[in-house]
Write a structure and sequence with these properties.
With 303 residues, the chain is mainly alpha-helical. Helix content is 74%, strand content 0%. Helix 1 packs across helix 10 and helix 4 runs antiparallel to helix 9.
Length: 303
């Protein structure tokens, strides 16, 4: 009996460890989408104290400095690994994505327009088929149909005012984010990759061209407050730096199309958080849209 108990304990520990490692990506994903969803509330509040261009530069700079600070603190090699891949991802995910979102805001689009960036999973599904040769099942097609219908009910582009430009910019933001995610996935498939090094350099490459936007920024007009500082730290450190590291880690372990499509839960969470924090309660058609997106997530999980 005494010889069996240690063996059973060892087997139980191994089983628990395997189960934990199996569920770790999903637990991390749940935390990530919650953090990114709440960032919409944070950005809406902090954008009241700074112009969009100023907000974009500060947010991106904080994320880049954070990643390089962690890179140095952990003693990683600071020389870039696969700089070409990092540059492609940085220009797509940081520069072009950030610019597209900013132009959507500058053009006077309603807050809900920014949720159009979550056409991203549909772009990823198409780009992954082309660039990563990931399979595209019937369930994926059904999921895309349900998710797209749900997203349209939430966004309600037919009710927006201000023309097509804000919506076009927001959709382009989703396309650029999708392209950056697929390029990141492809980079991880090409061999060993230091995620921290790669993340730091792609953030820096995405930041450098923003220096050209400095003449359009207005740092003197910032209305400083503890809430603004905490909000920018949240957006720059947690949503940008920590969020990107977590996203890259997940891309190495889950299919890009599956991961990105499940990110459609973010606008659903964002609508709920905005209702609770800002009093922006969803309409009945928005609630129906959430149910359709939920159905899409269930379908994609069964692919």
């Amino acid at each position: 009996m005494s010889t069996l108990n240690p063996a059973r304990r060892l087997a139980a520990n191994l089983s628990a460890s395997l189960s934990a490692s199996r569920w770790l990506p999903y637990a991390l994903f749940a935390g990530l989408v919650t953090m990114w969803a709440y960032n919409y509330v944070v950005m809406k509040v902090t954008l009241q104290a700074a112009t969009p261009i100023t907000h974009l530069i500060i947010r991106t700079a904080i994320g880049s400095v954070t990643l390089f600070g962690v890179l140095l603190a952990r003693g990683h090699n600071i020389r870039p690994q696969r700089l070409r891949d990092a540059a492609q991802v940085g220009l797509s995910s940081n520069l072009l994505y950030g610019l597209a979102v900013t132009l959507a805001l500058v053009a006077g689009a309603a807050g809900r327009t920014s949720v159009l960036v979550f056409t991203m999973p549909f772009w990823v599904a198409l780009l992954s088929r082309w660039l990563l040769a990931e399979p595209f099942s019937r369930n994926a097609l059904r999921a895309m149909a349900a998710g797209f219908a749900g997203l349209m009910l939430i966004v309600a582009p037919w009710q927006l005012h201000g023309g097509m430009l804000p919506m076009l910019c927001a959709v382009l933001a989703g396309l650029f984010w999708a392209l950056g995610s697929v390029l990141s996935k492809r980079a991880t498939q090409r061999g060993q990759l230091d995620s921290l090094n790669f993340s730091g350099w792609q953030a820096l490459v995405g930041l450098l061209p923003m220096l050209l936007l400095l003449p359009f920024a207005d740092f003197a007009a910032i209305r400083w407050s503890p809430a603004f500082v905490l909000g920018m730290v949240y957006s720059g450190v947690f949503s940008s730096a920590v969020g990107w590291l977590a996203w890259l880690w997940l891309l190495r372990r889950l299919p890009a199309s599956t991961l990105s499509f499940n990110a459609l839960v973010i606008p659903v969470l964002a609508v709920g958080m905005a209702a609770y924090s800002l009093g922006e309660w969803p309409r009945p058609d928005e609630l129906l849209g959430m149910l359709l997106i939920g159905a899409g997530i269930v379908l994609i999980a069964r692919r």
